[in-house]
Amino acid sequence: MAEIHVKKIPNGYVTLVEDPVLANNRLFISTQGHDTTTLAPLFQKNWSFNFNDAFQTSYADEQRGEIILEKGVITCWADNESQGWDNLWMSYYHATLDWNYFPCKPGWKTINGKVLISRRFTIPGFGTEIGSGTTGHQLYSSTDITAGAGAITQTNTYAPNYYVYEDVSNQRIWGTWQGSSSGGYINVTQTYETQLGTGSNVTPSNNDKSVQFFMGVDDQGFLHYVGVQDGTSTTYYSQYTFYKINPTSYAVTQIINQSYRSNTTRVCPRSWPSNIRRASSTRRVIYSCHYDASSNLAPIRYVWNPADGSVTATNCTMTYSGANTYGTYSAMYTTEANQTYNNMSWHQKGYQFTVDGVNYITFWLTDKYAHAGSGSSRWSTSLKRTMMTYTIGAGTGDDVLTYHSSYTFPTVNDIPRDFMPINAAGTQMMVPVTLQMKFFSFNSSTGWAPTGTYPYEFRSVGLDQTNRIWGMSREKGNAVLHMITPTIPVTINVVMASSNFTFTGSNISTSCTVDAYGSDGLRISTAVNLAIDGNTMIFTTNSTKNITITTSASASTVVNLTITGGGVNNIIASVDI
Amino acid sequence: MSIRTVYADGRFDVFDGERHIIHQPFKVSDTGAQEPWDSEEDALAWWDTQQAAYTANTEE
Predict the structure, then answer these.
(1) CATH of the domain at A542
(2) Which of A51, A118, A480, B50 could, after both became Cys, cross-link A137 (CB 3.0–4.6 A)?
(3) Are residues A519 and A477 in the same domain?
């Protein structure tokens, strides 16, 4: 783990941007190019949003932690409870439900080697902008965005927050624009490799107060989305509307209209759809996290068949051991301080993953403003702070969710601000919380548990193309970039063979065992510095009170000791990072 | 803005000038059941609940 960079240049320049052309292997840190692998500066390779040789300095979202990385970014910051900090306009990892096949990206390399990059001038407005407004996008004519005079064309018209799909056969680039009281919109641009500005803002079905999630493209080439509506009005309580868009006429066909469970009494629990599990070629499965009339978690299973474009909804059957119920473990969180629009700082979202052929779903609780405002009321009890994990039924019986485990976040400050998997299996999560970054690991016997901590509060975190974790904080300068490596030891155990010895005048030979564990809770091999605090014990190997040993990834490492007299001795362990 | 609705053979479409904004070949539901529209009146009643979003200014 390391602090990589303190940003001194003004706001208006994004702190960290990964080159959308991955083969270039470049990261732009405060506009200066660096080799992604070695982080060596690349002189004469400088880039910021620029057009006709003029830098664009109106970009201001890095106040909120803006970084742009290939494998996704989540944001973990809110200034208050009354703006759209949680409407996905920067947190683009969650804006697609099928990241591995249809990633969302603010930077996009086209099929013919051009580069598109969107730039957000400020947070999306509520009530004025529709479809674009605070967003612009630029087209660069080659795979080297540092070359020449910058972008060859730029416009705010039909500019998305991020691109979701390049339709090569029909020559269109599609994107999503989140925010606005009028809900999210879908943007499409034609002639996107030569001249921006021709296309359409497509109005989704039931987009009022909505956030839009991209599902992918069906076998006929239609784009599928699910919009979720939330607001203080009793009209909205996380209704899901599924729809598809014709790839050339842009006509919208509504497939499912405002789906929800029976709990309409409490607005704004913000129940977002889970990621997609590809069960078969005709079954892509999503779960909601709605509640029933008794405020029990009662998800709906949605099965999308990309062969015919249909989506079918089925209420899940929830199964618990013995007489237990949902209320045994958890309670629906309350929603103090909800806002008029879809701009609350909290939500719940399911995440599906598979371990040894068994499918699981965890319903993660998140809140970017739990630490202040009404957060303490929202998360006032341990039941509210408990997230649930279920085993998903096999095959087409995946509408049956059986209780597996639960995890209670100990305090309000431990409520996740967001979550994002850091391994392919989805069993390790980075979970920024108030004041810290946590790492969680899933065990199929015991469920989720925290396995590490990095003591900085981030505004956003993400993964670059090499799977390295980057985080942006603001404890000094205009921003601070951290590169976070969860595989370094976060826990070191030193265990003496015995806690007490009787010294009778002759040296005593004994030993201790040393183990180092990574953020995933697994033993790792690494160098550990040991120092003896005391005057009557030495390391046998070098007859001194200091030694560096290398731990084993498979077993405890034995370190021999010699006790030379009476008294108290302790061993202090440390690692170099 | 020039909204035009077309109902034919159980399919319902809406155009804004030359722009095709809605293609709804079945009745909408909250389950995904794709049943045909009962009548043009049925489809138009649904459109009444939708058109506010489409008749707002969707261009800059």
Answers:
(1) 2.60.40
(2) A118
(3) no
Do the chains contact at B58 and A131, CB–CB below 8 Å?
A: yes
Secondary-structure percent of chain B, ordered helix, strand, coil, rounded to 5: 25, 30, 45
Q: What's the number of CA atoms in the CB half-sphere (13 Å) around residue A186?
A: 32
List the domain range (segments joined by +) for residue A150: 2-484
Residue at which a domain ends, from A466, A484, A502? A484
Q: Tell me which chain B residue has its CA closest to the CA of residue A159.
A: B60
CATH code at A368? 2.130.10
Q: Give the nearest partner residue to B58 out of A201, A312, A313, using CB atoms.
A: A201
Question: Is B5 an 8 Å CB contact of chain A?
Answer: no
Tell whether A453 and A528 lie within a shared domain.
no
Q: Which residue of chain A is at minimal alpha-carbon distance from B14?
A: A251
Of A252, A260, A311, the CB nearest to B32: A311
In angstroms, the CA A377 to CA A412 distance is 9
CA pair distance A405, A398, nearest whole angstrom: 18
- Residues A462, A531 share a domain: no
- Rounded CA separation A340/A88 (Å): 17
Same-domain pairing of A364 and A507: no
> Beta-carbon neighbour count of residue A234 at 10 Å?
10
Mapping DSSP onto H, E and C, the string for A450-492 reads: EEEEECCCCCEEEECCCCCEEEEECCCCCEEEEEECCCCCCEE
Its pTM surpasses 0.90: no
What is the CB-side half-sphere exposure of residue A26 using CA atoms within 13 A?
Answer: 20
Last residue of a domain, one of A484, A505, A523: A484
Q: Which site among B12, B22, B37 would you substitute to test the A interface, given the most A Cβ atoms closer than 10 Å to its Cβ?
A: B22
A123 shares a domain with A41? yes
Residue in the structure block whose two tokens are 């599609």 = A174
Q: Are residues A517 and A409 in the same domain?
A: no
Q: How far is A302 from chain B (nearest CA, A)?
A: 9
Cβ-based burial of A209 (10 A; exposed 0-12, middle 13-18, buried ≥19)? buried
A349 and A382 co-located in one domain: yes
How far, in Å, CA of A347 to CA of A344, rounded?
8
Residues in B closer than 8 angstroms to A124, CB to CB, are: none
Q: Where are chain B's structural domains?
A: 3-53
Using DSSP's 3-state secondary structure scheme, residue A378 falls into helix
Number of domains in chain A: 2
- Written as tens digits, the pLDDT of chain A (577 aa) is 688 888 888 777 889 999 999 999 999 999 999 999 999 999 999 999 888 888 776 666 677 788 999 999 999 998 887 777 888 888 899 999 999 999 999 999 999 999 999 988 776 666 567 776 778 899 999 999 999 999 999 999 999 999 999 999 999 999 999 876 667 899 999 999 999 999 999 999 888 888 999 999 999 999 999 999 987 767 888 999 999 999 999 999 999 999 999 877 667 788 999 999 999 999 999 999 999 989 999 999 999 999 999 999 999 999 999 999 999 999 999 888 777 777 788 999 999 999 999 999 999 999 999 999 999 999 999 999 999 999 999 999 999 999 999 999 999 999 999 999 999 999 999 999 999 999 999 989 999 998 888 889 999 999 999 999 999 998 888 889 999 977 555 678 888 888 889 999 999 999 999 998 876 667 888 888 999 999 999 999 999 999 999 999 899 999 999 999 999 998 988 876 5
In this structure, the answer to whether residues A477 and A497 fall within a common structural domain is no
